[in-house]
Write a structure and sequence with these properties.
Order of helices and strands: HHHHEHEEEEEEEE
Shape: elongated
Strand content: 25-35%
Structural class: alpha+beta
Helix content: 10-25%
Number of strands: 9
Largest sheet: 9 strands, mixed
Radius of gyration: 21 Å
CATH topology of the largest domain: Umud Fragment, subunit A
CATH superfamily of the largest domain: Umud Fragment, subunit A
Strand order of the largest sheet: 2-1-3-4-9-5-6-7-8
Distance between the termini: 44 Å
CATH architecture of the largest domain: Ribbon
CATH class of the largest domain: Mainly Beta
Number of helices: 5
């Protein structure tokens, strides 16, 4: 049954499953950190305050939970159940270069993705996806079949491991050596393959690797 108590219980349970406080959950969702504080759940005159549908939508997006999972958390014992593993899109490097799977910012687009469970060791954010290594070109660091978790929304810095897609459709995992508004320089992971440099006009997108299944 949907009630003031059950919906706040669901928010608290969702925070607990992600090892967050209610304020930490609000912050992750881009909300005022005090939005979910217990003191905010009733007005000074005792009237019940409910979270907005926009707030709930932002929380679901930030944690990867579905509306069905959120509804299930309204049960009194929900916080003590086993944590779920939200799924994220998975695509192979060869498919990534074919086009149609990403928007101009490097975020997943369209349908037809495979999915994998999101690793507990990585920080969950909206827009994150997985790329599966295909072939031997990234040895010895990454092997055929390894999975990379990529965050296109993360800021990239010198020394980061990144995935780059060129406007010609080439997709590669490299180490970022230099990044300016005009060009990038990339160090190859495999010593048998050359280092690369591109003008930014040649680059469709660049995204930071945040986790690898090695």
């Amino acid at each position: 049954m949907l009630s003031h108590d059950t919906i706040w219980h669901a928010i608290d349970a969702l925070a607990e499953r992600h090892q967050l406080s209610p304020s930490g959950l609000a912050r992750r969702a881009g909300l005022d950190p005090t939005s979910f504080n217990k003191s905010k759940r009733q007005s000074a005159d005792g009237r019940e305050r409910w979270p907005s549908t926009e707030s709930i939508a932002k929380v679901l997006d930030a944690t990867g939970a579905t509306i069905d999972q959120f509804m299930a958390l309204m049960r009194p014992d929900a916080a003590r159940t086993e944590p779920y593993k939200p799924a994220i899109p998975l695509i192979g490097f060869a498919q990534a270069g074919a086009g149609g799977f990403f928007d101009d910012g490097g975020f997943p687009a369209g349908q037809g993705w495979d999915v994998v469970d999101f690793p507990a060791a990585a920080e969950r954010r909206a827009g994150i996806y997985a790329l599966e290594i295909q072939g031997e070109s990234m040895l010895p660091l990454y092997r055929d079949g390894d999975v990379l978790i990529v965050d296109p929304g993360a800021q990239v810095r010198r020394g980061d491991r990144v995935v780059v897609k060129t406007r010609e459709g080439e997709v590669m995992a490299k180490i970022l050596v230099r990044h300016t508004p005009r060009n990038i320089e990339l160090l190859s992971l495999n010593p048998e393959h050359p280092n690369r440099s591109f003008e930014m006009s040649e680059v469709e997108w660049i995204a930071r690797i945040i986790w690898a299944s090695q």
